[in-house]
Amino acid sequence: MIHPRVSLACGLVLSEIARDLRDAAVPIDSETLDQLATFLGGPDSRLFEPSPDRALDEAVRLAHVQRSRATAARIDLLEAEITNVPRSTATATRSA
């Protein structure tokens, strides 16, 4: 059972995490999901300790991990596309 002080301390952060989990546009990898599952239901989770400090620290850490994954940009290019970059017009004009 979650102690009321822990629930009060972590409520906003846990709501933010829940909002991200419901948003289909936010990418969530399996490692982050495993960490969240352990925090939310694991037998040794800080969420079930009477002191809110460690639980809040862990909740904030997990929210930060999720937020950094959600804001990271990823562009998939083939290696040939990376090395075959056309020269700009300014560069081509100078060398001509």
Helix/strand order, N-terminal first: HHHHH
Major sheet: size, sense and barrel closure? none
The radius of gyration computed from the alpha-carbon positions, rounded to a whole number of angstroms, is 22 Å
Compute the number of helices: 5
Mean pLDDT: 78
**What is the count of β-strands?**
0
Give the overall shape, derived from the CA principal axes.
Answer: globular
- Which residues form runs of ≥5 with pLDDT under 50? none
Percent of residues in helical segments? 55-70%
Give the amount of beta strand, in percent.
under 5%
Short characterization:
The chain is mainly alpha-helical and 96 residues long.
Give a written overview of the molecule.
The protein has five helices and no strands. The protein is mainly α. The longest helix has 20 residues. It is globular, with a radius of gyration of 22 Å. The N and C termini lie far apart (74 Å). The model has no long low-confidence stretch (mean pLDDT 78).
What is the fold's blueprint, element by element?
Layout: H1 4-22, H2 30-41, H3 52-71, H4 79-83, H5 89-95
Helix pairs in contact: 1-3, 2-3
Attribute tags:
single chain, 96 residues, mainly alpha, 5 helices
